Amino acid sequence: MGPSLTSPGLTHRLFVGACCLALLATQQPQAWAAAPSQTPLISNPANSPKPNVVLTLDDSGSMAFQYLPERQAIATVRDSSGNLTSETVPMPSDARIYLDPRDLTKNTWDSGNALFVTADPNIAGTVLRQKQTQLRSPQVNSIYYNPATVYRPWKDATGREFANATFNSAFLDPMRGSPNTTEALNASDQRVALNTTVDLQARWYCDVLNRRNECATPQDPSRRRFNPALVYLLTPQTDPNVSTNYTLFNLNDAVRDFVYPAIYQERIDAGQCRRSGNNTLCPANIERQNFANWFSYYRSRLMVAQAILRS
Question: Are 299 and 99 in contact (CB under 8 A)?
Answer without folding.
Answer: yes
